[in-house]
Write a structure and sequence with these properties.
The protein has one domain: Nucleic acid-binding proteins (OB fold (Dihydrolipoamide Acetyltransferase, E2P), Beta Barrel). It contains no helices and ten strands. The strands form two sheets. A five-stranded antiparallel sheet has the order 3-2-1-4-10, with no helix packed on it. By secondary structure, the protein is an all-beta fold. Helix content is 0%, strand content 52%.
Length: 125
Amino acid sequence: NVNMFEGKVAEHTANATRITGATGAEIVVDNGGKAAAGSDIVFAIRPEKIKVSSKKPADAVNALEGEVYDVAYLGDMTVFHIRLDDGQIVRASALNASRVTEDPLTWNDRAWVSFRPDAGVVLTR
């Protein structure tokens, strides 16, 4: 249940690595490991590290837009499948800490997935 984003390292510095996907989407991560600029990588991130919202978070470094493809209520948590605008499906999970959701989403709604730069790992080939 890990989301995988394939891409190339566009820039690698001591503080951050900028990754560009095949469709041009950009992801910034805190630690790109030993991935050199131009190398092919996979960025892996677990569903619970991804936030889903109806609006683009103002402070998000990494935010990708898509549409709610599927929603599964599992009692203690809800699992969202978001089809990004490039066609990739991203799985995100959220704890159901209260009965009422401030930002409810359902099938076919436009949605944003966002995550922190330190939320995933860069895998080199």
